[in-house]
Amino acid sequence: MRTSRGKCNCGNLVEFLRYDKNGNRIYRNRCTTCKRKGRRTKKDYCERCGFIPEETCQLDVDHMNMDPSDNSPKNAITLCANCHRLKSEIERRLKRENMYSVRRVKKLFRFPQR
Known about the structure:
By secondary structure, the protein is an alpha+beta fold. The chain contains 3 helices and 4 strands. It has 2 domains: 1-37, no CATH class; 42-109, no CATH class. The two termini are 33 Å apart.
């Protein structure tokens, strides 16, 4: 979040988000167009277990490298709530043991090959 209205990486103006405690305006980091790009990568099934939901709200788009600003299709994977929770727990355990790496999470979690 930023305190001055600027431009997104694509060149569009960012939008107003809210006021902080001191009455200063807070703006988003990305424009609406760039924010929505990540939603286009959502598939209609879980890419890990193959679950096909009744409603797409039962699926989440997860960022494999844990960077929410990286919405590239290569970084996004569609997971059901159960697989998403399992992946988050594996990440938490590895971080606790100071053994976290994206490669290790992929190996333990058995992501599909791309």
